[in-house]
Amino acid sequence: MTINVGDKAPSFSLRNTEKEVVSSEDFTGKPLVVLFFPLAFTSVCTNELCGVRDDKSYYDGIGAQVIGISVDSLFTLEKFKKEQEYNFPLLSDWNKETCRAFGAIYEDFVLEMKGVAKRAAFVIDGNGIVQYAEVLDSAGDLPNFDKIKTTLNNLV
Predict the structure, then answer these.
(1) Which contacts of 136-143 are long-range, i.e. CB under 8 A and separated by 24 or more positions?
(2) What are the angstrom distances between the C-alpha of 78 and each of 41, 131, 141?
(3) Could you read off the pLDDT tens digit of each residue along the chain, which spans 156 residues?
(4) How many separate domains does the chain show?
(5) By CB atoms within 10 Å of each CB, which of 8, 15, 52, 71 scores lowest?
(6) What is the DSSP track for 83-149?
(7) Whole-prediction pTM value?
(8) Would you say residue 8 lies in a domain?
(9) Residue-number span of the structural domain to which 71 is assigned
(10) Residue 9 resides in a domain
């Protein structure tokens, strides 16, 4: 499935690193940046999320929430978040339902791994409508954070 700008974002309920259920409805009324990433502890994923961590004041300043989603277990994500001092929620899509709903999954990945999240970025407005969508085929590429910020600035 492909998600395009103007589409209603798929709803989701996933567990965070504190083992609490986080739902898409929790973000109603405020902009949400959803970042899918392939695997915790890999260099590109770490660099991407550290950049978001270091720029968190920007997102807070405009009232936007950022979440990261991968197919890693919530226990792996808990360790990853703690070690890297991430200041935003990481959610486990262990069952791969949310990645599939957003069209952000490698059915076949490297080293015979199957069902790994693609690197992707979505900006969802407070009404649940996708305002920015970027799904990358190469796990080595990063989302265009300049375009993400431009989209967010246009929402506030």
Answers:
(1) 139/38, 139/44, 139/106, 139/109, 139/110, 140/44, 142/44, 142/47, 142/48, 143/35, 143/48, 143/119
(2) 11, 29, 24
(3) 789 999 999 999 999 999 999 999 999 999 999 999 999 999 999 999 999 999 999 999 999 999 999 999 999 999 999 999 999 999 999 999 999 999 999 989 888 889 999 999 999 999 999 999 999 999 999 999 999 999 999 998
(4) 1
(5) 8
(6) HHT--S-EEE-TT-HHHHHTT-EEEE-GGG-EEEEPPEEEEE-TTSBEEEEEE-S-TT----HHHHH
(7) 0.96
(8) no
(9) 29-155
(10) no
Q: Of the candidates 63, 60, 38, which has an alpha carbon nearest to the alpha carbon of residue 49? A: 38
From 3, 14, 45, 67, the catalytic residue: 45
The pairing of beta strand 130-135 with beta strand 90-92: unpaired
- 45 is an active site residue: yes
- How far apart CA 12 and CA 9 sit, in angstroms, is 9
Tracing tokens 């929402």 back to the chain, one arrives at 155
The domain that contains 120 carries what CATH number?
A: 3.40.30.10
The answer to the question of residue 74 being in a domain is yes
Residue 108 lies inside a defined structural domain of this protein: yes
Give the CB-side neighbour count of residue 120, counting CA atoms within 13 A. 27
